[in-house]
Amino acid sequence: MMSPLTFVTVVFEAEVPLLELQARSMSRYLDPASVEDIVILDNCVLGLSGRSRRRLLREYGALQSRVRFVRTSELIDPGATGGWRSQQAAKLAIARRVQTTHYVVLDAKNHFTRAASASEFVDTAGRAFGRSHPYTSHPLRGSLVWTLTYLGAGASLAEHALGAFPPTATPFVFDTDTVRALMDDIERRSGLAFADEFERRKLLEFFLYAGWVETRGPGLAALRNNRSVPSPTVWPKAASVDGVRAAIAEHRREDAAVFAVHRQVLAAADPAARDRIAEAWSAFGLFPDAASAGRFIRRFRRRYLPAIVWTRGVERLRRALGHGKRAPRLTSPEPRSETAAI
Q1: How many other C-beta atoms lie within 10 A of the C-beta of residue 273?
Q2: Which strand (E) or helix (H) includes residue 41?
Q3: Which of 55, 138, 212, 255 lies 20 to 30 Å from 152, alpha-carbon distance?
Q4: What digits encode the pLDDT tens for the residues 148-188?
């Protein structure tokens, strides 16, 4: 029998409804024997309200006793980083509180669509699933090279990585002990707390993990099985009927257990694309019918912009009052992740 996993999701104000949908999908489809803990990394400016926590716990159903809420500020100094970067650093920092051999990082936009267990993420030899892809012409090529340079990778390794390297999208499976070793190493070498160095060097969490494994760890082949963990996603650049149909077709072709719809798609897509998403969610069994899914999307849209405006306003106010002072920055490519915040 495979060992259970810890599932980790980061959330901020605008994505709370999507996290409720993810919780519903985990309750419906995720094998309880595969779940040790579900950790919600609360990156809301003022923290999730009691009402939001109660709504989320109800959606987790029989899994709710395994849910833990952890403020990102408990893991990293809020003065070191903030917003999108604090989400990234927290995905690694949580390893110091994870009890399982592996943990699976999700975004709030991910939701399960069929019965799934730990075997979707880790093989029987204890290697995490995750297929690599090329970065030769990828928008994040510069960030990958920057990270590898920071880690001291040689030219041959950098060239190899550009040809095939793990993705920066979720679900992403981490080896817990390796993440702890990575953070200890970075703190020892830099003389700074992990989050301070993470922000100062403007790193990306997934590149940092995979790059460290290749340069200073046992190598990716020792920890990863090159089988994909498919999670077709409707991205903002494909917020159209055709884009939604393409993602659904990929989901069917890959027999994927996870699907994703980016929050900006729900906010910006035209009615026809939104209707297609609602139909898909109903077909996945996450809503009783497309009309119910459509009402969910309309509620999300009404709340989305106010949530974004409010969050940014509070963050600006906190900075003006002297909270959340950032660490000094060095010159580097400004990374733009596939999971970056608006």
Answers
A1: 21
A2: strand 35-42
A3: 138
A4: 999 999 999 999 999 999 999 999 999 999 999 999 999 99
